[in-house]
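SAMPLE LOG
Freezer: B-3
Tube label: C17
Construct: single chain, 474 aa
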Amino acid sequence: MKTKNLFIVLFSLSLFITSCSNDDDNNQPSTPPMQNNIVEIALNTPELTTLVAALSRADGDLVSVLSGDGPFTVLAPTNAAFTAFLTDNGFSSLDQVPTDVLSQVLLNHVIMSDVKANDLIAAGSGYAKGSATGAGNQSISIFFDTTNGVRFNDAASVSTADIDASNGTIHIINNVLGLPDIVDHAVANPSFTSLVTALGAADGDLVNVLKGAGPFTVLAPDNDAFATFLDGTPLGDVNTAVLSQILLNHVIAGSAVTSSSLVDAGSGYTNTAATGAGGNAMSLYFNTTNNVTFNGISTVFQADVVGANGIIHAVDTVIGIPTVVTFALADPNFSTLVSALTTLTPGTDFASILSRTEGSNADGINPDFTVFAPTNDAFDALDSVPGETVLTQVLLHHVINESNITSGMLNNPGDTTAPTLEGDNITITLPGLGDNIANITDGSGASDIGIIAVDVQAGNGVIHVINKVMIPNL
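STRUCTURE (predicted):
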């Protein structure tokens, strides 16, 4: 009997222990299912089968790339979008698209960060950096605008947003984004409608020029900049030849200049595609002391919009055709010269005279001008700045009128002699001594004046920079 009772107790205890054990098992936290990555989601999405096939076929092992850690944002074109893309570009199938081109097109749909639709909506509009390679080996930019849905490059709209993946986000879009050139970028952004209209109206077929191979750097004035520049004048009333030169003065041809390269340089001169006096390429002055500015009047407010054939920097002011005065005012190295030409010589309106663009003036002082511009250091080296009467003659001694004399026009080796507005001749000797590009003998006979920079080309003349003030035979 005792044995039987003991068996019952042990059996009951075993049931109790087993029950407790099962309860413990039920209380164990369950492991959530693994979230799929971007490629896995695409594989399981019927309307993205062509995208998957394209990723598999393209150069760069993009399937493995987009299966990586990320984070990525993928703008995923539908099957219908790819069908339209192939038709529009003359391909009968995906197999006909060169694999290197296909890779770049696909990478143009990849942003190397996790961007949700609400992030884009909060920003309103702007640029994101894609992963395709554009001008200057920079990443091609993608323009987004949420004014009417979420659109990219004004070419594709989001049909399904914020598909979460383990390594980023997918937004399904209704068109394939081609590789934009700088004209495509301008057309896509409503802030540049005036620029696009101007490019179409100007002489020189500028739209097709800027759709060429490039590379180009375009300083793109926005609509507000054009409105200020036109000041109520209809764009259609602007002479189309003049308009062409103004627009070309915003184009640096042959290089894709990033804002970082300008900042690294600090300040200096480059050439635009506009034509200055003597048929020479127009100069453009940049300075990055206080933001990135051009010719002292136009500031970059959106830098480094990268296209397949160039880079756009959006600027807040239209850059007119510069005169020699423009560069003197823009370049802080000439601040003392500007003071000498203005406040120190009020009896002579040097600024107006040297801004002239037309000839046959009553005083006989006519463009084009060749100006030898002393730096601030050159003025500082004087014992004192002379009074107005003498200073006026000194300044006139730095100007040759009715001649756009560039460095390439000088006798080299040898001497070139020319009369100045003051009346005395100066003689330029090439090559120069030491670090000087050339030496000048002035009206007083001093021959240690050095030309240290040449050919700053304006619309009405050219500037050469000198390291000493020239003195006439007083």
